[in-house]
Write a structure and sequence with these properties.
mainly alpha, Arc Repressor Mutant, subunit A, Four Helix Bundle (Hemerythrin (Met), subunit A), two-stranded antiparallel sheet, 11 helices, 3% strand, elongated, disordered C terminus
Length: 261
């Protein structure tokens, strides 16, 4: 039986449906990426509530998309989802911090063991360029400096070619950023930049045991920049914090001592 055309008229072309699905996915990823960056850059501090309606209004998306973004961040350990209390930036305990540090140390020693003596000249140059970016950001752009310090380690993990290892390193580095936001004490980034240069040199020379020792020393120094003391964050409106991230720009911070990785 031939239809009268009304049914087909009510159906959207498959290409339109695919385009709409892709657009929703892109918008959801934009929210996820912006929230993740705001947490890593310590604009959103541990314990800050993340109401779906306020975030959706700021980014111009539905609560459903915000909920998916928060769920993804919860899977990475950056957000806590609490029944009947909504979402909040993760607030790890000191024991959590110690456990995450132990896992991170093991993973990153594995990374340098695989990379020692195997880095290409292009990879070495890439790492050196990254450290130069850290130097430029030092003292002038705190959020960027914080993010670049962690990205140095994820960049190393990506250079192993092991996607699973890179994923795990990225997660623990991000979680450690939350820990430093909660427990970290002010410390000059001069240490982290010089330590990163030492790691590059150890990897370039091919001394695997030396590279593991250098990485352990570096991460011990990172852990040593933390105090067992929770700081009370300065109260700020969520919409004001997310304003720059919704525009895809850097979030300006008041000057204070930087916590480095």
């Amino acid at each position: 039986m031939v239809g009268d055309g009304r049914e087909s008229a009510n159906k959207k072309p498959r290409s339109d449906m695919t385009r709409q699905t892709r657009t929703k996915g892109d918008r959801g990823f934009t929210v996820y990426r912006a929230l993740r960056r705001a947490i890593i850059e310590q604009a959103l501090l541990p314990g800050v509530k993340l109401p779906e309606d306020a975030i959706g209004e700021r980014f111009g998306v539905s609560r459903t998309l915000v909920r998916h973004a928060l769920g993804r961040l919860a899977g990475e350990g950056l957000v806590d989802l609490r029944r009947n209390h909504g979402a909040a930036v993760a607030k790890p305990s000191w024991q959590d911090a110690r456990d995450i540090f132990t896992v991170r140390l093991c993973l990153e020693q594995l990374v340098v063991a695989q990379l020692a003596g195997r880095l290409t000249e292009e990879q070495v140059h890439g790492l050196e360029r990254h450290v130069k970016e850290e130097e430029v950001a030092r003292g002038t752009n705190e959020p960027l400096s914080i993010r670049l310090a962690g990205e140095f380690h994820t960049l190393l993990a990506e250079m192993t070619g092991n996607a699973l290892l890179a994923r795990y390193v990225s997660e623990v580095v991000s979680r450690f950023g939350v820990i430093l936001a909660l427990y970290g004490r002010p410390h000059s980034s001069e240490c982290a930049v010089s330590e990163h240069r030492t790691i590059i040199e150890a990897l370039r020379t091919g001394d695997a045991s030396g590279a593991r020792a250098v990485m352990e020393e570096h991460l011990d120094a990172v852990a040593g920049r933390a105090l067992i003391e929770v700081r009370t964050p300065r109260a700020r409106e969520l919409r004001d914090i997310l304003a720059a991230y919704a525009r895809g720009t850097e979030m300006p911070h008041p000057k204070r001592g930087r916590r480095t990785r």
